[in-house]
Amino acid sequence: MFKIDNLSFSYNTNEKELKNNVENINLKIKKGEVVLLCGESGCGKTTTTRCLNGLIPYFFNGQRTGEAYLNGKKISEMPIYKLAENIGSVFQDPKTQFFNVDTTSEIIFGCENLSMPENELKKRLKTVVDEFKLYNLLDKSIFKISGGEKQKIACASVNAVYPDAFILDEPSSNLDSESSWNLRDILQKWKADGKTVVIAEHKLFFLEDVLDRVIFFKNGKIESEWNIDEFKKINHRKLGLRQLNLNNLKVYHNDYYSKNQEFFELKNFTFKYDKSPILDIKHVQIPKNEIIAIIGKNGAGKSTFAHCLCGLERSCKGELILDNKVLKRKERLKKSYMVMQDVNHQLFAESVIDEVLLSMDDENEELAEDILKNLNLIHLRDVHPMALSGGEKQRVAIASAIASKKEILVFDEPTSGLDLKNMMDVSKNLIYLQKLGITSFIITHDYELILETCTHIIHFDNGLIIDNYKIDEEKLKKFFIK
C-alpha cells in the first residue's frame, strides 16, 4: 500500500543542531499490515509519518529527494482531499487537528466535509462512540476535557471517515492505562478489518498483540527491522526502547521513603466549575519530601488538583496545612512551580538557556547549563523553544522547574512523548530533587516512570482520593496492567 523510495528530507531551519531529518529511507508497507516505527526522540519517526500522510511537502517546508507512494501514486502530487479520504492521521498534540469547539461536532467533522447524508453521519457517530466508549464525552467543550480525552476524540474523528490506512504519531502519549488498552482493542479491530496502520510510538506495552513488523530508526536512518516474533526476543532497553511487556518491570526507587515523616494536610479542599463539583477532598495527609505519583483515569480530577495545590485556581476552597501553618493561595503560588501538560503555555524566552534563566530569582548561567546537561538539552542551548519537538519542549519546562528552586514541584505528564533515555534523565533529576528536600507531585499514566522514580501514590477517581499509599507494585499492577 505504501512505498518509500530512497527518501531524504531536511527541514528548512537555521538551527543546525535540530534533528528529525531522514536520509535514504526505503520502506514498503503492505495493505493490512500494522507497522511500528520506533527509536529515540529525533530519530526521524515523525518525519517519516509526515511523508506518508502528505504533511510533507504540503505543510512542512524543506529539502526533499526521493518519493513516498500510496497505491502507486506519488503522495506529493495527490490533492489533500484525496489523501484525507484514504488516510486518517492522529497527531501527538490532538489540539492541532481540531476544528470545532465541541466534541460531537469534532467526531463527525471529517464526514461532514465529505458531504455524507445526515442519516449516515448519525450512524457513524453511534458506531465510533460505541467502539471508543465515548458516551461520557459527547457534547462536551473541547476546552474543558483532559489531554487524554482530547486524544480519544482525535482517534474517533479519523475513524469515523473509515479510511483505508491510519497513521498515528504517539497516540498513547496522554492516555490513561485503560484508554491505552482500549486503543489496543481498536487497533486489533482495524487490523481485522484489513486496515493498514503505521504507528510512531515510544510506549510499546499496548502493541504486543497487534504488531506485524517493527522498524527501528537511528539518526534519521532505518537501522533494523524485525517481525513481531523476533522483536519480542530482543533486549528492548539496550536499544533505548520502552518495555513491550509491563510484567517485566519492578519497583526501583523504594529505598528513599522518608523515615522522620512530615505531612501536607488537606482539609475540605474543594473546587467547582459552573457549580459542578470537580474536586472534593474532605481530609488527607500527604507525605512531604516524596516523589508522589498522582494516578487515575482521564478526567478524574488530577490536573484540577494540581492547579488548586499550586494556587492557580482562585475559587478553590479549603485548607492546605504545612508545618502547622495554613498556606493561602498566594503563599502556595510562591512555594510551588508547575510544569503544565501543554508546555507551550509556559515557554516565553527566545532561547532554551534564557528560558531556564527566566525561572531563577538570581540568574546563574553555570547552574542553568548544568541542568541542561543533565536533561540532555545543552546542544539546544541557543535554539528557540518553539522550534523544538514536543519531548524537547517538555524537558525545557522541567529544566525551568528545577532551576526555580521551589519547595513544591508539580509535573503534569512530564514524560509524555519521551523515549526511554529521556524518561530516565527526568527520573534521575526527580530523585536528585528529592534528596535536596523537594516534594514532587507527578501526574502521570507512565507505569515505567512510576516504578523507576516514585515513592508514594495518590489515586484519584471522579474528583475524590480513593487511595493514598506508599508505592506498592501489586496495587499498581491492578490499575495499569490488563
Describe this structure in words.
The protein is of the alpha/beta class. The protein folds into two domains: 2-248, P-loop containing nucleotide triphosphate hydrolases (Rossmann fold, 3-Layer(aba) Sandwich), CATH 3.40.50; 263-480, P-loop containing nucleotide triphosphate hydrolases (Rossmann fold, 3-Layer(aba) Sandwich). It is built from 17 helices and 20 strands. The protein has helices spanning 45-53, 55-58, 80-86, 103-107, 109-113, 118-132, 147-159, 177-192, 228-233, 302-309, 329-335, 352-358, 365-374, 390-404, 420-435, 447-453, 473-480, and strands at 2-11, 22-29, 34-38, 62-70, 73-74, 87-90, 165-169, 196-200, 213-218, 221-227, 263-273, 276-287, 291-295, 317-322, 325-326, 336-339, 408-412, 439-443, 456-461, 464-470. The strands form four sheets. Strands 6-7-8-3-9-10 form a six-stranded mixed β-sheet, sandwiched between helices. Strand 9 and strand 10 (221-227) form a beta hairpin. Helix 6 crosses helix 7, helix 12 (352-358) runs parallel beside helix 14 and helix 13 crosses helix 14 (390-404). The radius of gyration is 23 Å and the shape is globular. The two termini are 33 Å apart. The mean pLDDT is 90.
